[in-house]
Amino acid sequence: MDPFGILYTDLYQLTMGQVYFLLGLHEREALFEAFYRKNPDYGAHQAGYTVFAGLDPLLSWMEAARFGEEELAALRALKSRSGKPLFAEDYLAYLRGMGGFSGLTLRALPEGRVAHPQVPLVSVEGPLLQAQLLETALLNRLSYETLIATKASRVREAAGEAVVLEFGLRRAPAKGGESATRASLIGGANRSSAVSLSHLLGLPASGTHAHSLVQAFLALGYSEEDAFQAFAEVFPDNTILLLDTVDTLHSGLPHAIKV
């Protein structure tokens, strides 16, 4: 079972869904709107705008998400406090035949567009049960990417004409790195060090080298200058040197200038 599939949701979405189903409300037309109340707060001050992101990954997830036998077995294994099945078999049968989220219509801002508080980012229309089940996945994907895209946009604005590179994959939580890389590029970063994501987005990956390159050379009896020289010789057209492994001003910078 894919842990990021259709059960990548909160339990209460499914229990509310059963209430709708048993009362015959599950196919009533509903309208849900996703919005936020204020722009991001970065501590010292609040952002003056928000950049919307995360829509395309949400749509891709919606196309693939289905209740298969593994997912239904996982739900069937859940019990109430009295030990009875938490979900009725006719409800599970309905989920099996529901066909994911094909009954929903989404109206949304384009990714990269500036958004404003209290104004819907996405409107979801369709059967009540399907719209309810989408809530967690929608908020999970849109909220994080929008936050990162907004921060990246502010970095882009501060950098002016300078090149902005995104190196966050190693610091991100698991698949959160994918979302953060994508959102950073939407927000204004020129390039990313993430190889697969850059390829999928049609951009060349970019990067420097790690401290470990210099440390490896030092451990083997060579110098920081030797490490820089080796890297520059192997990649003469793509040389970006990391200066702060030993001492930025008294070692890294002089050696980089010399190389």
UniProtKB/TrEMBL annotation:
Record GO biological process = NAD+ biosynthetic process via the salvage pathway
What keywords are annotated for this sequence in UniProt? Glycosyltransferase, Ligase, Phosphoprotein, Pyridine nucleotide biosynthesis, Transferase
As its record notes, the protein acts as a catalyst of: 5-phospho-alpha-D-ribose 1-diphosphate + nicotinate + ATP + H2O = nicotinate beta-D-ribonucleotide + ADP + phosphate + diphosphate
SUPFAM superfamilies membership = Nicotinate/Quinolinate PRTase C-terminal domain-like, Nicotinate/Quinolinate PRTase N-terminal domain-like
Record domain Nicotinate phosphoribosyltransferase N-terminal: where: 7-143
Q: What class of enzyme is it?
A: ligase
What is this enzyme's EC? 6.3.4.21
Q: In which pathway does it act?
A: Cofactor biosynthesis; NAD(+) biosynthesis; nicotinate D-ribonucleotide from nicotinate: step 1/1
Q: Which GO terms describe its molecular function?
A: glycosyltransferase activity; nicotinate phosphoribosyltransferase activity
Q: Which residues cross the membrane?
A: none
Keyword Glycosyltransferase carried by entry: yes
A GO cellular component term found in this entry reads: cytosol
Q: Which family does it belong to?
A: Belongs to the NAPRTase family.
The protein in question is named nicotinate phosphoribosyltransferase
